[in-house]
Amino acid sequence: MKITLSVIKADVGGYPGHSGMHPELMEVARRELGKAKKEGKIIDFSVLHCGDDLELIMTHSGFIDDPQIHKLAWDTFVAGTAVAKKLKLYGAGQDLLKDTFSGNVKGMGPGSAEVCFEERKSEPVLIFMADKTEPGAWNLPLYKMFADPFNTAGLVIDAACHKGYTFEVQDVREHKKVRFTCPAESYDMLALIGQVGRYVIKSVVRNSDGEIAAVTSTDRLNLLAGRYVGKDDPVMIIRAQSGFPAVGEILEPFAFPHLVAGWMRGSHHGPLMPVGFEQATPSRFDGPPRVMCAAFQLNNGLLEGPTDMLKDVSFDEARHEANVVANYMRRHGPFEPHRLGADDMEYTTLPEVLEKLKGRFEKL
Ligand code: F6R
Ligand code: MG
Ligand code: MG
After folding, report:
1. 11 carries an active-site annotation
2. How far is the CA of 52 from the centre of ligand 3 (A)?
């Protein structure tokens, strides 16, 4: 049975500020998707939030970029915006950049990751959602999952993984893409994907049979809108087990709270803290950036789950380390490398300050 799994997300209002989600917004999303399920438009759904982002997880028998599914997500965000406005939530409708829907949410503000596959005899899928960061935050963990044998034992000892994986990398500035077959081309790939603000892993396929293994959202909201409208908090979908990395190999990279761009005003580096659903409300200096993971077993398209995977005590130490790193980074205040470089900041008064000082600079 061919299934499409669509994760479409948007920030249509925060509570309070940019930190979390009002329960009424979740309710309205569940009501809208519940209606669509009854009408047979989707097979199943789950509604979650990561920080101020409303996450719509849907299974259906349509295709990727299916206008009917994208319209459903858009209409749900519009209904959420109405509630956010009624409750005077913060930044109501902030990610809905257009007034009318035109076939696809791409370029309209919301982020999406979608995957279509023949459901296996047993199909575990993991959905990662992050807040206060950007899609390049997935580069390091994806590399570890699918190309680093020190993380994924299966690359060495499971015949089904041994031929490696191919990564599609997008240049989000120039709107170009390139494929790397790993492990053979892993050094070339690392040369690019280490530059996380520009080169972003879009998908991963298995070399032995071309099966899709992972897909991410790569919508760069700030670039799309041409001005700052909110960080493009990313999502990704990963298929697990039987020739893909095991659930535990997929989660293992998050035991290292690596530094990502985002945090306060989308303009600071900070550690990506793995958290359970209940802890996904970034509050210290609007952060530190959070990642959570919802796992499901697909059952003919029905979503058995979610299980809250990063809540586990085995990630306590990573949370502690993230807090230690957050303290260390915060002590830099407005200095780099805590503050992002001038080109990557979402907020900056630099042009105004330079303009004001124009006449005061003297030749050295
Ligand atoms: C970062 C984020 C927040 C806001 C900050 C200021 O992605 O959402 O850190 O940038 O709270 O928000 P405004 O400008 O709306 O007061
Ligand atoms: Mg917000
Ligand atoms: Mg957000």
Report:
1. yes
2. 5
